[in-house]
Each structure stands twice: as C-alpha cells, then as structure tokens.
Design a protein that fits this description.
InterPro entries: YcxB-like_C. This protein is of the alpha+beta class and 194 residues long. Helices cover 55% and strands 20% of the residues.
Length: 194
Amino acid sequence: MIEVSNKLSEADWLDFNEVYVRHLSKKRVSRAMSVLPIYLLLLLYFVYRLISELNLYMNTLYFPLNQALRLAAGRIFVVIVIGLICAYALFHVYAYYSSNYLRKKLRKQMDPATFEESRICLTDESIGTYSSSTDLRLSWEKVTKLVYTDKLIVLYGPGMVCIIIAKECLTEEELTSVEAKIDSRCSGEVVKLG
C-alpha cells in the first residue's frame, strides 16, 4: 500500500483541462476546418445567384422591390441557412475551443472541495482519495483512462469521475513508486500530454 499527500492547485487543473480538451477536440476542429471552405463556397454561390436573380427582376423585368423579394424568397432563405451554418462552424473553431471560453466554463463548474488537501491511497485492489469532504475509491478495473502531464496524473473512472494526483506534492521517491503502482495495476487507455 502506498499513501501520499495531495493538493491540487486551481491553475494546474485549468491548465490540464485546456490541454486535455484541445487533445480531445483535434478531430472536431480539423473536421470543421475542412468543411468550412465548402460552406463558404456554397454561400458565395447562392449569394451570387440571389444578386443575379434580383438584378434580373428589378433591372430587366422592372418589378418593384417587394415583388422581386417575394419571387426570390427561396434563394434568400437558402442564403440565410448557409450563412448560419458558416457562423456555427466558425463559432466552434474560434470561440468554443478557445482557451478563454474553456477557462470561464470550468471556473463556473469548479467545486472548492477539489482543491483542498487530500490523501491518495494506492493498494493492489484500488486507488482512492479522501479528505474532510471527499471519499472516492476506484478499483483498478474501473479506471478507464489514465492521463499524464508534466504536473498531474489523472485517472478517469466511469462517467466523469476522476482522481487527480499533483506531481509537485510528491517527492521523487513517492512519484516513482506511485507511477510504478499505477503502471502495474492500470489497464485503461494511457494518454501522455506534454
């Protein structure tokens, strides 16, 4: 059995989540970036067709503006829909995955108990963390993902349950023994982030 002290800082947790979300969203961002030019080309095409149609109605056939707009309503609707799709894709790429948006969202969801001093206990059967307000144990079979960074080791269980170990709280000897125990007992997916 290995038992160590642990104290997670808010800055380390925010930094971890930023790097981890960026890692998880790489495929989504690249997919959005590959589809965005297609949407923009479609938007340009339909805007050109709309302007051409309005020009035909107003300058060649001499229809009044309200009648020309009624006749071109279908094209106007298509332009608006494609414009909204482009705006949505741009929002996802530049706003939703931005560092500022992520930090604001995480700060609203943070539980102060996450940052209080705790003890981490690693046995042959399970890993657990306990403090004055938290008591969480995960059997090694329940650990689905293990994420290593320069500052943290995060073990994810079912759902969004996780045990976080701050490396800076451990001595070199404790860190070596904790990593050895985790490597020998954990069979979940391992992700190393730099």
